[in-house]
Amino acid sequence: MTTPLSKEIAALIAAEGPMPLSRYMALCLGHPRYGYYMTRDPLGARGDFTTAPEISQMFGELLGLWAVAQWQAMGSPPAFRLVELGPGRGTLMADALRAARLVPDFGAAARIHLVETSPVLRAAQARTLAGHADRVSWHDRLEEVPDGPALVLANEFFDALPIDQYVFHAGHWHERRVGLDDGGRLVLGLDPAPSRAAPAFAAHLLPPAEGAVLEHLESGPARALSERLRAQGGAALIIDYGHAGGYGDTFQALEQHRFADPLAAPGNADLTAHVDFSALARIGRAAGLRAFGPLEQGAFLARLGLAQRAERLKRDASDELRAGVDAAARRLAGDGAGEMGRLFKVLVLAHPEIGLPPAFDSTEEWVR
């Protein structure tokens, strides 16, 4: 399917040669006129995917209680930045703030900062958080958030950051690039010259087999986050689908809740890759932070009291509502097909003086 963006990308390739996968992803998702996130609300039944906050209020409420406990572990600073990266429709933040009302001092101390580039989603967030309008600010980048200790929530943020891919062939790594075939259609191919960068990215992994695929996450936001927390204090709670390192091709497109060809309709589908949590942990530790996890989302939510919250919501509810709560809890924490409990992982990056984050124990600190 030809789209306005596919024409632009084809013209760039014709003029400059095949482009890295990271550039292709960045254009597809963030092009100022035709980018996927610039033009639509992608969430929910009418969109292309559903995130945990849209499944049930329980998810955001439990994260709100986690944030309160983490704020208390930081010494309950009288002013801090409550930051969300990629806040969707604002649902997670709204649910978190509602749960946090149990500790009024937390709400009084929090200044809310949303890092969001999509004008469509910013408008949705403003509607959802209208009751907090006097203390909500929007930013294009984390670096724009004012100084001060911060609690950062990042649910399904890092999976949408551009990645590069490298394929091991005949003893060398070769970068995978997006080019044009003889008919002018977008195709994936390999740079014939060996990559100089990839060996360093693979240095911590086992020796690759022929055909192994190495994915490298664009790490600028992770470095900025880590450096900020080390310099100014605080912690980040990162939740996403992913793994703890290794080889594999996880580049994918979603359209109308189904997998699609990521080259077929640039700008019309969500492009993502599974998050390498070990890479995020290494970036955090290199900046001087402590890293905890990754812990499976199911275990994390269970430790925060998912079952107890579900029972509270079902109290005095109709049979239909009770069944809905149970279904939502299974989808958030279960390990079956279509459930998020095992595929999604949780990582915490924290200033070294804070101590153990809520829901983690000392055996779960990342020390490799």
Describe the structure.
The structure is a single chain. This protein has 368 residues and is of the alpha/beta class. Helix content is 36%, strand content 24%. The protein has 14 helices and 17 strands. Strands 2, 3, 4, 5, 10, 14, 15, 16 and 17 form a nine-stranded mixed sheet that branches. Strands 1, 6, 7, 8 and 9 form a five-stranded antiparallel sheet that branches. The protein has a three-stranded antiparallel sheet with strand order 12-11-13. Strand 6 and strand 7 form a beta hairpin. Helix 5 (57-73) packs across helix 6 (91-100) and helix 10 (220-232) packs across helix 11 (277-286). The longest helix has 17 residues, at 57-73. The mean pLDDT is 91.
Using brief descriptors, characterize the structure shown:
24% strand, 17 strands, alpha/beta, nine-stranded mixed beta sheet, single chain
Shape, per Cα inertia axes: globular
Mean pLDDT: 91
**What characterizes the major β-sheet?**
9 strands, mixed
Radius of gyration: 21 Å
* Percentage of β-strand residues: 15-25%
| Termini gap | 45 Å
Classify the secondary structure makeup into a structural class.
Answer: alpha/beta
Uncertain spans, ≥5 residues at pLDDT below 50? none
Count helical runs: 14
Into which percent range does the helicity of residues fall?
A: 25-40%
Compute the number of strand runs.
17
Question: What's the gist of this structure?
Answer:
The chain has helices at residues 4-16, 21-30, 36-39, 52-55, 57-73, 91-100, 104-109, 119-128, 198-201, 220-232, 277-286, 297-304, 306-314, 319-333; strands at 19-20, 80-85, 110-115, 136-139, 150-155, 163-169, 172-180, 186-190, 213-217, 234-243, 252-255, 258-260, 270-272, 275-276, 290-296, 344-350, 365-366. It has 14 helices and 17 strands.
